[in-house]
Each structure stands twice: as C-alpha cells, then as structure tokens.
Amino acid sequence: MSKSRPFPAVTGGCFCGLVRYRLETAPLFCHACHCADCHKSSGSVFACFATIEADRVTSIGSMPPKFATTVRRDGVARHNAFCPKCGTQLWGNGDWSPATIDIRVGSLDIPGLMEPDLHEFIESKVDWVILPEGAKTCKGGYEIKDYWPKSSLKRLDAAMSRYEERLKLSKAAASGAGEDEDEKEADKTPTAQSPEEKEDDEEFEKRYQVTEKALQERLEKLSLKLNEQEVA
Ligand SMILES: [Zn+2]
Ligand SMILES: [Zn+2]
Known about the structure:
Strand order of the largest sheet: 6-7-8-9-4-3-10
InterPro entries: CENP-V/GFA, Mss4-like_sf
Keywords: Lyase, Metal-binding, Zinc
GO molecular function, one term: carbon-sulfur lyase activity
Number of strands: 10
Protein name: CENP-V/GFA domain-containing protein
Order of helices and strands: EEEHEEEEEEEHHHH
Helix content: 25-40%
Bound molecules: zinc ion
CATH architecture: Beta Complex
Radius of gyration: 20 Å
Family: Belongs to the Gfa family.
Shape: globular
C-alpha cells in the first residue's frame, strides 16, 4: 500500500440522500457540455461533468443507484446512474473508456469545487450563459489528447489496465479452474499510484483548500453583516 496523503473528503449524492458516493482521488478532467442532448437529459441549459476512474468512486449510501440507458444523436449508448427513489441523475459511463465515469458536478455536496476545464458544443450554448473570460471552448465534441493533462492520460491508461485485468479475472472465474497462469499474472499487476498521480492529488487538495477558505470568508462576512443589521 502506498503511503500517499489522505485525499480530502469530496462527497456527493442524490436529492433525497439515499444514494451517496465519495471520490477517492481528484477527477481527471472537468467539462461543461452545451449540446442539445445535455439540455434535454439534464433539464437545464448545460451539463457539467467531472470525469474520474470508475474504481476510484466508493458508494457510501444506503442504496446503490439504478441505471437507465439512452442513445445519443450520434448513436452512442450512455448508461446513466440515478437514484431509484428521487430520480436525481448522478453519473454516466465515460465517453472515452469503460474504465471512467462522468460525475454530474451538481450532485457533489460542494459543486463549486469543480470548474470546467473546457466548454464543448459551444455553438448550441444559450445566449444568456456568459462564460468567464479566458474559458476554453470548442465547437462540437473534443479529443481527450488535445485537452487532458498528461498525468490524466497516464491515469486513464492505468485505469484501462486495471479494468482489463478485472475483466480477465471475472472471465477466468466464470470458466472455472485451469486458468492458474492468468491469475498469477494478474496478481503481479501493479496498481500503486505513480508519482504523477500523487502530484495531481496534491494540486487538487490545494485547490480544495483555497475554495474552503473562500467559503469560510464568505460565511464570516455574512454573519458580520447580519450582526450589523441586528445592532441597527
Ligand atoms: Zn434520492
Ligand atoms: Zn452534451
């Protein structure tokens, strides 16, 4: 077990609280999508996703989510996790790899922790949504190799290897004995974090602490204002 520093508790869940989850590492990338499919499926004017390795998200609620499959305009099927009681959409399977999922940022307990690294399908953005100055945008979808940090691309490779190993193991288990060689090989597969991943976590932790401080300051200002009103 690697002795990496504890990752800050980034948690999220559905509206009614039945389905809860915790992120075990910093997301790989965060993007907002302004496409027509996201308008419909989110019921809002854009969707915001934090992409993360599927095996780095832990379910901590009293019930796992249910899944609904939708087929996008381009024919790609998406499996969307939602709460069986209140219907809140929580995440969908990643577009680029079966080893990742796209968390819906609004389902995080502190959504402001994530800010989109990129806004895609900018051509169908509604006019009154004004993006921050300097925000990265693209027409249509995007290629991860053009926008993801190198450390995230490396983590994606590692996640794919783990995914393939798990697939191999479950196939071996299903077909019974006689797969000893494969299992021994799988045991040796390194899954420890690379130094880059740790750096990424630390960077995220820094960003998290800055946000927390800003929130704290905002709260203090608000209570000062309230006190002043009471005195007046
Ligand atoms: Zn719920
Ligand atoms: Zn979209």
